[in-house]
């Protein structure tokens, strides 16, 4: 059985009554990090290859309240890799003080091929709760040199 984090209490308001029948809220397995998010659509939605991203209601709102926490919306691994269904915004961030409806920005990343069809109730994304670090910034004129220096993209190689 999945154990809740005792120091994090999140209020969850179901906006779509079908969610309870679809088994929400639930994690796909005892070791899953992400809470499955369902497409709360009234009819099937077709996502053409490389079409515009579409906002799909997740059917609920939540209140995290604790600014030491946030939630992140990620695509489901298999759908992204196998079918090309990814998030139009990469990763969605749900701040602790946001209490509006959750939306999933869905996009068909495939360059060609068949359109993707999302049907009502499909589990299309996942929600992961994580801690937030807010560092104390020190404005400086220079940075101490490191072994890597200013080397950016690809500077450490692949092997």
UniProtKB/TrEMBL annotation:
Keyword Hydrolase: yes
GO MF: dUTP diphosphatase activity; magnesium ion binding
InterPro entries: dUTPase, dUTPase-like, dUTPase-like_sf, dUTPase_trimeric
Pfam families: dUTPase
Reaction catalysis annotation: dUTP + H2O = dUMP + diphosphate + H(+)
Enzyme class (EC, first level): hydrolase
Similarity comment text for this entry: Belongs to the dUTPase family.
Name used for this protein in its record: dUTP diphosphatase
Species this chain originates from: Methylobacterium gossipiicola
